[in-house]
Amino acid sequence: MLKPELKLFDGKLSLAVDGFTPVYVDFSEGAIGYRAKHTTGRSELLFKAVGGKKNQRILDGTAGMGTDAFLLAHLGFEVTALEKNPTMFKLLQDGHSRGLDNPTLTPTLKKLNFIEADFLEFPIGDFDVVYLDPMFPEKTKSSLPKKAMQVLQLLLGDMASADSVEILERAMNYTKARIVVKRPLPAKPILVPTAAQFKGNSIRYDVYKSGISGLSLA
Question: How high is the pLDDT of residue 99?
Fold first, then answer.
């Protein structure tokens, strides 16, 4: 079985697997750089989903590659992002450190703090919003992961739907305000009913309010 290893690639700490392009975190290039350049503030779907109020404190419980955490900080929010996998956390740390040397990225990255921690065990803080993007949701037969996602799957494995339920239920105890869950557009909500939904072309944000009883599996 292929085993990902951490190696330096062009000055960037990278996750390397034979036969695959190295995976690293860089907030200035690729899809994340493009999205940051084209983010339009209050008209951004993500901005609306988390409540549309700048200076909110957001807990991203499932950081992954850090894309959404970075975009939330770019939109003006104070973001704490958790990543429980130690290898993935090292990639995030490296990307954050390199990004702080870029004057264009510095204001955003100063609003973003990555912490190596399991969301299910993290001490509850005073956050306005809990944001969740369970990695590797249900596959469809017609959609295979990109090579980068395949490498990450080798490292992290698939997240079972039961884990997603546990994460969301725990989030209900984390905040008195808003819980936002990112989902593929055709996927069912993790729990129903949602308080609101914000739909894009390929993804959807399901919004829940803490303290709501009567939620059930979709």
Answer: 94
- Token digits of residue 44: 């951004």
Q: Which residue has the higher pLDDT, 43 or 13?
A: 13
Q: What is the mean pLDDT of the chain?
A: 83
pLDDT at 111: 96
How many Å apart are CA 113 and CA 93, to the nearest integer? 9
Cα 192 to the center of its chain, rounded Å = 21
What is the number of alpha carbons within 13 Å of residue 195 lying toward its C-beta?
16
Q: What is the mean predicted confidence (pLDDT) over 150-178?
A: 72
Q: What are the CA-CA distances from residue 170 to residues 7, 83, 126 (Å)?
A: 35, 16, 15
Sign of CA dihedral 159, 165, 168, 173: negative
Length of the chain, please?
Answer: 218
Reduced to 3 states (helix: H, G, I; strand: E, B; else coil), residue 196 is strand
Let me know: does 115 contact 97? Beta carbons within 8 Å.
no
First-to-last CA distance in the chain?
35
